[in-house]
Amino acid sequence: MKKAIIGGTGVYGLDGDSRTQRVETPYGEVEVFVARMGEEEIVFLPRHGKGHQVPPHLINYRANMKALDLLGVRYVYATAAVGSMNHRYAPGDMVMVTDFLDFTKVRPLTFFDGGDGRVGHVDMTHPYCPNLRRAFYEAASKEGLEIKGEGVYVCTEGPRFETAQEIRMYQGFGGDVVGMTNVPEAVLAKELGMCYQVVGMVTNWCTGVQKEAIALHDIEAALGDNKDRLTRVFLEVFSKTLDQDHCQCHRSVVML
Ligand code: HPA
């Protein structure tokens, strides 16, 4: 199993039949769903659990990513519900995330915790996989899925939303969208040498961007048909043979 989709808020499964599989990791057990596509099996991992029961700051990110690694996964597409602080990206839009700003506070954020007597660092020149991004754009245009643009994801600790002043600060730092989950997920994928790309699905305007209080629009309605189109695009890319010959994702770790 080389290919996986991590579903964020509002994206809870793939169409068609899938079987449940439990994976034991040093960080805890993870439940994934495995669907057959031709000769291949695709893994689906609902980030917040099957019934969306795990809040963002308590997600066991290391168990999730280690489980994918143990299954042999090398290529991961993920979705993430985000608020928008960029006037170009409105609720319902999709944004390709190209970089992040990390404002998390207390979550375990690495596999390199020195336990084996070695110190590891990971290069963040390309936080997301340029190949998966390129392949996504090609498949998305065939599917008629519009990606509104690219943007910088601000990751907050949550679970509270931001204050208006925090949003102004993040705007000043170059942020476009804000969510609570992409760090450490994207970092752990890189530590494991995986190709990883997340697509942001805008569910609301960030605090203070509009006059009204923050309104989390009906997520299902905001995501609409885009949710299904998005998974179809992921699967279209996954139906092809992928390689890691043209990106740095599997050689970004420096061990000292
Ligand atoms: N802030 C943080 N996380 C979010 C938001 C937001 O406005 N919307 C969806 N996830």
Structure, described:
- The protein has helices at 61-70, 130-143, 164-172, 182-191, 219-223, 226-238, and strands spanning 3-7, 19-25, 28-37, 40-46, 75-84, 94-103, 120-122, 149-156, 177-179, 195-205, 253-255.
- The mean pLDDT is 93.
- The protein has 6 helices and 11 strands.
- With 256 residues, it is of the alpha/beta class.
- It has a single domain, classed as Rossmann fold, CATH 3.40.50.
- The structure holds hypoxanthine.
List the helices and strands and how they pair.
Layout: E1 3-7, E2 19-25, E3 28-37, E4 40-46, H1 61-70, E5 75-84, E6 94-103, E7 120-122, H2 130-143, E8 149-156, H3 164-172, E9 177-179, H4 182-191, E10 195-205, H5 219-223, H6 226-238, E11 253-255
Parallel strand pairs: 1-4, 1-5, 5-10, 6-8, 8-9
Antiparallel strand pairs: 2-3, 3-4, 5-9, 6-10, 7-11
Bound molecules: hypoxanthine (HPA).
Hypoxanthine binds at residues 81-83, 156, 161-162, 178-180, 203-204, 206.
Shape: globular
Overall CATH class: Alpha Beta
Total domains: 1
Uncertain runs: none
Strand content: 25-35%
Number of E-type strands? 11
How are the strands of the biggest sheet laid out side by side? 5-9-8-6-10
Helicity, as a percent range: 10-25%
Distance between the termini: 31 Å
Radius of gyration: 17 Å
Mean pLDDT: 93
Q: Could you spell the SSE succession in H and E letters?
A: EEEEHEEEHEHEHEHHE
CATH architecture: 3-Layer(aba) Sandwich
In the CATH scheme, what's the topology name?
Answer: Rossmann fold
- Count of helical regions: 6
Structural class: alpha/beta
Main sheet characteristics: 5 strands, mixed, barrel
